[in-house]
Write a structure and sequence with these properties.
This protein is α/β, with parallel strands linked by helices. It folds into two domains: 151 residues, Rossmann fold (3-Layer(aba) Sandwich), CATH 3.40.50.1950; 55 residues, Alpha-Beta Plaits. Helix content is 31%, strand content 23%. The strands form four sheets. Strands 3-2-1-4-5-12 form a six-stranded parallel sheet, sandwiched between helices. Strands 6-11 form a two-stranded antiparallel ribbon. The chain is elongated. Bound molecules: flavin mononucleotide. Flavin mononucleotide (FMN) binds next to helix 2 and helix 5.
């Protein structure tokens, strides 16, 4: 099966999506399309390099202009299936309101128009959710040391100081060197937190499940390829 797999800017279910893609790469041809935020967030969780290594066809939103010419391939029936996993609340909102102004919302619109099945795994479907954070500097544990080893040794120069030591997440690639180097264990990666989901996002996810040509799943491994 030729699958177009879209990754949006969600940390929730990202690792599960990457694992499932990998598990299904044998016997299927998988092309991956990243939204702009999808590319950034995958890098923050240290998954971008791995996905780019494993999959030959990778499309980035910033290379797709304003009109997303990639969607022409759907009109030509080049893909048997489109999967959006994980799908942010933002992209779900666009799909349910018929907006097609980003790479993934365009792909979703064109999938339905071309009769290509569209499977979506939204991140937001229940009131509270446990999710995993990328790199976090805990201000309660950070001593703002004059000589800060994580700041001095970060290979990406992602750690900096203003009023305190902070991380520029757009530079971080989750190498986790800083986690090891902080004397006071103030830096963590993969911390679990419970987050509150807005009613509007839960409503949008419900509405998505009633739309023509779209199947909604709770987890990527519920999808049958
Ligand atoms: C580390 C990180 C994790 C995020 N995780 C989620 C998430 O799980 N679900 C979600 O809806 N948005 C999440 N976001 C916010 C989206 O990236 C943001 O709304 C973005 O504009 C979505 O764009 P896209 O839908 O085009 O990918 C996260 C942002 C960051 C920086």
């Amino acid at each position: 099966m030729h699958v177009l797999w879209c990754v949006t800017g969600a940390g929730h279910l990202l690792q599960e999506s990457a694992d499932f893609m990998r598990k299904n790469m044998r016997g299927n041809k998988i092309a991956v399309a990243f939204s702009g935020a999808g590319c950034e967030v995958a890098e923050m969780y240290g998954l971008l390099d791995q996905i780019e290594r494993d999959f030959k066809d990778v499309f980035m939103e910033d290379e797709q202009g304003s009109s997303s010419p990639l969607v022409g391939r759907l009109a030509k029936k080049e893909y048997d299936l489109v999967i959006v996993s994980p799908c942010t609340a933002n992209t779900v909102a666009k799909i349910v309101t018929g907006v097609a102004d980003s790479l993934v919302s365009n792909i979703a619109a064109q999938a339905v128009k071309s009769g290509t099945p569209l499977h979506v795994v939204p991140t937001d479907y229940k009131k509270t959710q446990e999710t995993m954070l990328p790199l976090v500097i805990d201000p309660m544990l950070c001593r703002n040391c004059e000589t800060c080893p994580p700041l001095m040794n970060c290979p990406k120069k992602a750690i900096y100081r203003d009023d305190r030591v902070r991380a520029n997440m757009l530079k971080c690639n989750a190498c986790k060197k800083c986690v090891e180097e902080c004397t006071y264990s103030a830096i963590s990666f993969g911390k679990k937190v419970r987050i509150h989901i807005r009613d509007i996002d839960i409503e949008n996810t419900k509405r998505l499940g009633t739309m023509e040509g779209i199947q909604v799943y709770r987890k990527p491994d519920e999808i049958k390829i």
